[in-house]
Amino acid sequence: MNQITKLKKNDFSPEIKLILYCARTYVDSETTQQIQKNLGQGLDWSYLIETAIAHGVLPLLYHNLKLIDFEAIPNNIQQQLKNYAHNIALKNTLFLRELLKLLFLFKKYDIRAISFKGPVLAISAYQNLGLRHFCDLDILVCKQDFMKAFDLLTDTGYHPAYEWNFLNRDFELALRRSKSEYSFTNGIVSIDLHQDLTVERFLSSSFTLDFLWERRQLISISGHTLYSFGTEDLLMYLCIHGSKECWRSLKWICDVAECIQQHPTINWENLLQESRNLGCERMLLLGLLLAHEFLDVKLPLAVSKRIAAHPESRYLANEFSKRLFWRDNLLSTQFTSEKFFLHLRMIEKTKNKLGCLWDLHRPILQFFLKLVPNIKDKEFIPLPHYLYFLYYLIRPIRLLLR
Predict the structure, then answer these.
(1) Spatial contact of 249 and 283, defined as CB atoms under 8 Å apart
(2) What is the sign of the dihedral through the CA atoms of 166, 169, 175 and 181?
(3) CA pair distance 162, 185, nearest whole angstrom
(4) What whole-number distance in Å separates Cα of residue 288 and Cα of residue 301?
(5) 232 φ, ψ to 5°?
(6) What percent of the chain clears pLDDT 90, i.e. is strictly above it?
(7) Whole-number Cα distances in Å, 7 to 114, 293, 391
(8) Residue 38, helix vs strand vs coil
(9) How many other β-carbons are positioned within 10 Å of the β-carbon of residue 317?
(10) What is the model's pTM?
(11) Nearest-10 Cα torsion for 130, 92, 184, 51
(12) CATH 3.30.460.40 intervals, the chain
């Protein structure tokens, strides 16, 4: 673990060091001294703010700089930080109000739903709605209620972020039902409606709404109570999600760190055993190790021993550590062979590896869907229904002309 610590402490610029020292809700006296030290090093404020925004931690940066030594910052930068953090807090409040409305609506129509990430994570892990930057609402429903929730959102004024408008309506509906998640927007608020927690199939099939519902816990937000994941389930999910995203953003490491800090009663032995049963121990250890190395989270002895026994987790942590602040980090949201093989290395159980291999069909499916005729092809050349098969020949021609 010392290799990553050395990389973090010695190789990062003063701007990155300052971001790391501020990317937490609790700052001790030693960290305070490090923040003050880095503030006196002639910082490139444009680069610092750009990086903090890109990694979703500007609210934490502003929060701690304001508490520790705001006068050491140029006036124009003070105002820039204040305005940005204020806008995030306002937007988060708007999203929370919409979430409460939607959860009430789902309950009214007997749809079991659990919100995760977004406002729920901000309160559960950060204890402050304004300290976690998020862009949408994530709501998990059971598979049986997925299309019911889909229709309810559209009836409420939400629009699917994308529709294929295929000529074969039955095919479109079947494809819609098969998707793990679907995005909606009403022009202001974006929603990801999930029937599975991740699009990728390397997550244990046991990690379902029924599993999470039995272990859910109530949290209080602005005088309202709503359901969230149980603490151990939340920590496992945060590590799974960060691993799925190849830990491209510091905010996902902050989520893990804050979840640990805000819930000191975690039963680590049970958590480790449960992660082994669910096939996500390697991803759990990876997230915990990154939180330890970058944000100085103290890990219990049982966890340290498991990390020491998992060279693959240490290798992956080192790999993602090197890339975290690269400007050209290519582990984007798009499918790449490199990302696929890194996902494969995170997986422990054979059946989950096979599920990961199944994900290879997704880029092929995307290509195939581009060839399926839709309503624009009919507008291009109107044909009677019994000649619809000709649209498979017309569509490539129309796309080439476009």
Answers:
(1) no
(2) positive
(3) 10
(4) 12
(5) -65, -40
(6) 68
(7) 39, 10, 57
(8) helix
(9) 25
(10) 0.91
(11) -40
(12) 96-229
Two structure tokens written together for 132: 């976690």
Instruction: Give the CA angle between residues 288, 291, 294 to the nearest 5°.
Output: 145
CA distance 118 to 135: 8
Which tokens go with 73?
């910052």
Report in angstroms the alpha-carbon separations of 210 from 81, 99, 141, 214. Answer: 42, 21, 9, 6
Alpha helices in 109-188 (DSSP H): 118-126, 146-155, 169-178
How far apart are the C-alpha atoms of 125 and 313, rounded to whole Å? 24
Instruction: Determine the Cα–Cα distance for residues 271 and 303; give it in Å rounded to an integer.
Output: 10
Coil, strand or helix: which one is 42?
coil
CATH of domain 96-229: 3.30.460.40
Distance from C-alpha of 351 to C-alpha of 111, rounded to nearest angstrom: 31
φ/ψ of 225, rounded to 5, equals -115, 140
User: Rounded distance, CA 32 to CA 363, Å?
Assistant: 47
pLDDT of amino acid 4: 46
Per residue in 202-235, pLDDT tens?
A: 665 677 899 999 999 999 888 888 899 999 999 9
Specify whether the CB–CB gap between 318 and 30 falls below 8 A: no
Query: Residue 259 and residue 288: Cα distance in Å, rounded?
Result: 11
Contact 90, 82 (CB under 8 A): no
| pLDDT at position 35 over 80 | yes
